[in-house]
Amino acid sequence: HIGCKVLFTARSEEVLSGEMESRKNFPVGFLKEDEAWSLFTKMAGDYVEDNELKEVARDVAKECAGLPVSIVTVARALRNKGIREWKDALEQLRRPSSSNFKDVQPAAFKAIELSYNKLGRDDLKNIFLLIGYTAISSIHDLLMCGMGLGLFQGIKRMEAARARVYTLVYKLKASCMLLEHGSKNEHWFSMHDVVRDVAIAIATREQNVLTMR
């Protein structure tokens, strides 16, 4: 229709220019330091303004390199944690990245990997990886695959397994490792594509998972 435009977004300019044949491309910049800190404190909680935490918290926020997905996942992972965990997280974020995905920036990979490690529980980690490498987006499919793979140890009844799945998905959403589905329907969920790439990398390394695109 006259006057209408189509907007594409992609992590690779080659996709826009080469595959989509877009005519005009422009970069979306990183968050400025004050914007990044504002988002970080919103997700981690105002307690990071405490004198004991503020300096290390600001350093952690800087390591996220202005990337919203990194800021959100790291801030949620460290919410209500003590000063020692904050310092340990800072050290982890400063280490060289093990990312081998050309479209995943090292800062994002390290941030999401840190958030994954902070999940703690094996069942939570396994469900996160399962969603990542299978692209499952519904409670029903997650329940079926999780039961088939034996991820719910000690659970034999379907009703109990369903309750466990809802609980795990809720925890992943609270950690910002999963996103709310557009319809706000609790039976559905989604995963940020950058988070999914990191999940696939971790699953490949830790569980010898093979995936096809």
Layout of SSEs?
Layout: H1 13-19, H2 33-44, H3 51-63, H4 68-78, H5 83-94, H6 106-117, H7 122-134, H8 139-148, H9 158-174, E1 179-180, E2 189-190, H10 193-207
Antiparallel strand pairs: 1-2
Explain this structure.
The chain has 213 residues and is an all-alpha fold. It has ten helices and two strands. The protein has helices spanning 13-19, 33-44, 51-63, 68-78, 83-94, 106-117, 122-134, 139-148, 158-174, 193-207; strands spanning 179-180, 189-190. It has a two-stranded antiparallel ribbon with strand order 1-2. Strand 1 (179-180) and strand 2 (189-190) form a beta hairpin. Helix 2 (33-44) packs parallel to helix 4 (68-78). The longest helix is centred in the last third of the chain and has 17 residues, at 158-174.
Mean of the pLDDT scores?
87
Q: Structural class of the helix and strand makeup? A: mainly alpha
Unreliable runs: none
Q: If strands are numbered along the chain, what order do they take across the biggest sheet?
A: 1-2
What share of the residues does DSSP label as strand, in percent? under 5%
What is the helix/strand order? HHHHHHHHHEEH
Task: Give a concise summary.
The chain has 213 residues and is mostly helical. It has helices spanning 13-19, 33-44, 51-63, 68-78, 83-94, 106-117, 122-134, 139-148, 158-174, 193-207; strands at residues 179-180, 189-190.
